[in-house]
Amino acid sequence: MLTAGTAAPDFTLADSSGRPVSLADFAGEWLVLWWYPEANSSGCSMQAASLDRVYDALSADGVRIVGVSFNSPDENDGFSEDKQLRYPLLSDPDRIAGAAYEVIREPGAPFEKKPLRHTYLIDPAGVVRYAEDANLLPLGTYGEHVLEVVAGVRG
Predict the structure, then answer these.
(1) Mind listing the pLDDT tens digit for each residue in 52-92?
(2) pLDDT at 61
(3) Domains annotated on the chain, with CATH
(4) CA 20 to 30 Å from 142, out of 19, 86, 117, 118?
(5) What pLDDT is stored for residue 88 in this prediction?
(6) Is 44 an annotated catalytic residue?
(7) Cβ(66)–Cβ(90) under 8 Å?
(8) Would you list the DSSP string of 111-150?
(9) β-bridge pairing 63-69 and 30-35
(10) CA dist 69 to 61, 64, 65, 75, Å?
């Protein structure tokens, strides 16, 4: 997992509509970059819904949310529509950004083809200010936790 103080690796990934989205698109803004293992799985669904509950509060504070997985744009589109998410989901099927963000699982590990559930808070200058192994958090209250983290880091 990347550590606080690390420059966030650049990426350009397709959103659920197939449009390219880059880290540079969020320059000057705070960004919650949420890596999730699988669209429509129960844990990811709970976490996605929890983030969506705090979307308005984060947006009002100038913080953007982006989810990333190794799913295809079509899978992410279905997930986003089904859960009525208000933030974009990006696809990294080649796992290039996943390697840069250190979310690749060890060979032979359970679910090795899916990214680790990690969350990064990236500041307006593109520096990671907070990193968390989100597997250690209660999924149903994940969004509230992220809201507290953002408030704490931004002071």
Answers:
(1) 999 999 999 999 999 999 999 999 999 999 999 999 999 99
(2) 93
(3) 12-150 (3.40.30.10)
(4) 19
(5) 97
(6) yes
(7) yes
(8) TTTS---EEEEE-TTSBEEEEEEGGGS-GGGHHHHHHHHH
(9) parallel
(10) 25, 17, 14, 10
Taking the CB of residue 146, how many other CB atoms lie within 10 A of it? 26
Q: CB–CB of 127/27 below 8 Å?
A: no
Out of 44, 68, 85, 89, the active site residue is 44
Q: Is the pTM of this model over 0.90?
A: yes
Phi, psi (rounded to 5 degrees) for 78: -60, -40
142 pLDDT higher than 90: no
Contact in structure between 68 and 92 (CB atoms under 8 Å): yes
In which element (H, E) is residue 55 found? helix 55-60
Distances (CA, A) of 20 to 39, 73, 81, 141, 143: 19, 11, 19, 30, 26
Radius of gyration of the chain (CA): 14
Q: Residue 49: CB partners within 8 Å, gap ≥ 6?
A: 83, 143
- Dmax (CA) for the chain in angstroms is 42
